[in-house]
Amino acid sequence: MKSTFMALLTFSLCVPLVAADKKPIIADPIVEKAVRKSLKKPTGELTKADLEKVTRLILYNNKLTSVKGLEKLTKLEWLNLPNNQLTDVTGLEKLTQLKYL
Keyword Membrane: yes or no (predicted)? Predict the structure, then answer.
């Protein structure tokens, strides 16, 4: 009985640590919002499979200074970024499917 209690206690203490360690797949909230809009998925966890479904993305007028995180959109073919403040486009070279920028 005591060992069962200890096992349950240990498990219950570890679960919050694992959940707290999860980082969002897209760190920039502006980019995440655009990805969610493209996917028509307003809530819930974004997965790698979700990101592979994104082929078009519009990020205009968002005051973005970098495109960090967009490299995860490996199937992206069309990217619209007007009226931002981009100073760093590192990562776009990884988007081998990109046809329009």
Answer: no
